[in-house]
């Protein structure tokens, strides 16, 4: 009985929104999200949402500024159309890496985007694997931060056996690697790296034993793939027999695909929080898993005011 639920999508990840609707047995809401000739975003909601529980599925992925504006304007349109509750479903939250001041006079853009979403009229936010957990505190509305762990773990258990080691590509991801390692009952290791500049990193050494192991590097996103390819070389130098990568958000910008293709990485396991661009689709090392089932169950629970946290117990 989802008669008062309406699900809409911008242009960021329409296939994911359609899968979520199929899982829930509802139709995707009718909305026109286009641009004027000067590039301004133009939104029209083409059905009644008065008093409805509305969900807008929109990753703020490349082109980030455009997808972000689509989300904000769609939220505003729902608010002005008297929707009862507006949930911004943001599988990939752009600007999440700018969650603190890293230099004098630097902005905290993740907080700014949170303020914009709140000011636009969102009632709550649903996201997956936020780059930094504290981003939840940037909002003055409820935030559900889902984890893609169940989806990724199921694949790893099915296709990876033997001497497995889960590796964090930096110290910031140790907690994530430890949680994975605990569920798989395997050891973990850490890549010690020193970042030379934006989107650049230098691998220093390996903390932990990876000799003779099948290694899975675990991260929340892959952007230019510099970190993971350098980590793979360091891990192989430390005796790993095979290196794969597992991440939630396949940003894959700039030289990412070229770096992956020229590396010795066996497989890149990602989810569909961000749709693969054309070049990424040609890379046969990339395996895409869908989080549509996870999102649809979370949406159903929000609609019925059930616990979302119990998804991960």
Task: Lay out the secondary structure.
Blueprint: E1 5-9, H1 14-24, E2 31-35, E3 41-45, E4 53-57, H2 64-80, E5 85-90, H3 109-120, E6 124-128, E7 143-146, H4 149-159, E8 164-168, H5 174-184, E9 187-197, E10 200-207, E11 214-222, H6 226-237, E12 242-250, H7 256-261, E13 268-271, H8 278-281, E14 286-289, H9 292-303
Parallel strand pairs: 1-4, 4-5, 5-6, 6-7, 8-9, 8-11, 11-12, 12-13, 13-14
Antiparallel strand pairs: 2-3, 9-10
Helix pairs in contact: 1-9, 2-3
Could you characterize what this model shows?
The protein has about 325 residues and is of the alpha/beta class. It has helices spanning about 15-25, 65-80, 110-120, 150-160, 175-185, 225-235, 255-260, 280, 290-305; strands at about 5-10, 30-35, 40-45, 55, 85-90, 125-130, 145, 165-170, 185-195, 200-205, 215-220, 240-250, 270, 285-290. The strands form three sheets. Strands 10-9-8-11-12-13-14 form a seven-stranded mixed beta sheet, with helices on both faces. It has a five-stranded parallel beta sheet with strand order 1-4-5-6-7, sandwiched between helices. Strands 2-3 form a two-stranded antiparallel sheet. It starts with a strand and ends in a 10-residue tail after the last helix. The model has no long low-confidence stretch (mean pLDDT about 95).
The structural class is alpha/beta
Instruction: Compute the average pLDDT.
Output: 94
The run of helices and strands is EHEEEHEHEEHEHEEEHEHEHEH
Shape: globular
Main-sheet strand order equals 10-9-8-11-12-13-14
| C-alpha-based Rg, rounded | 20 Å
Number of strands: 14
- Describe the largest sheet: 7 strands, mixed
Count of DSSP-assigned helices: 9
Beta content comes to: 25-35%
- Span of the ends, CA to CA: 26 Å
Fraction of residues in helices? 25-40%
**pLDDT < 50 runs, ≥5 residues:** none
